[in-house]
Amino acid sequence: MKFFIDTANLAQIKEAQEMGVLDGVTTNPSLMAKEGIKGQDNILKHYVDICNLVTGDVSAEVISTDFEGMVREGEALAELHPQIVVKIPMIKDGIRAIKYFTEKGIKTNCTLVFSAGQALLAAKAGATYMSPFIGRLDDVSTDGLRLIEDIRLIYDNYGFETQILAASVRHPMHIIECARIGADVATCPLSAITALLKHPLTDSGLAQFLADAKK
Ligand code: E4P
Hints:
The chain contains 11 helices and 8 strands. With about 220 residues, it is α/β, with parallel strands linked by helices. Strands 1-2-3-4-5-6-7-8 form an 8-stranded parallel β-barrel, surrounded by 7 helices. Erythose-4-phosphate binds near residues 28, 135 and 167.
């Protein structure tokens, strides 16, 4: 399973990259705003800065909601850097835009997916990635991981190549369960990735080894 980091924070992206386990980055307008990135030129520059920090795919989201606007924005984003993946919302014009970009050989990430039907449409349009938001489903008492299971089954039934990119990941068990189910990618906050490191027996075992090494 690929690990993407879900942030626009350059320090956190660098930290994950230096661990050697990072396969890409996802951003969204909220994450960019959280870093105080304002104005079109600064936003575009920030995407390039992220691409220069990592080796994998970097999702950059369009903010238009009509087909022509998404195409215009997406083409400009794709021209920024070869690692850019155009992130497009799961709406009718978004599906049309995904189909358009797929035919042009531009990678896409269909975002804001909350149902198996939406996931099926994204795959039919040829999305490179499709992002079900599991944490936000859990927040409204709906099983986000069950949705990943359903989509895995549907995609495998028909051999769809669209990658399941589990998003809105909140904690390490989300990552572990996504890996068990067979999600292709999990995009996670840095805290969820580093939480995978933790085990009290590792801590106590290491303390014992270091103490014994002094003897
Ligand atoms: C990723 O592509 C999504 O934008 C992100 O995972 C949403 O996460 P949130 O529900 O924590 O905002």
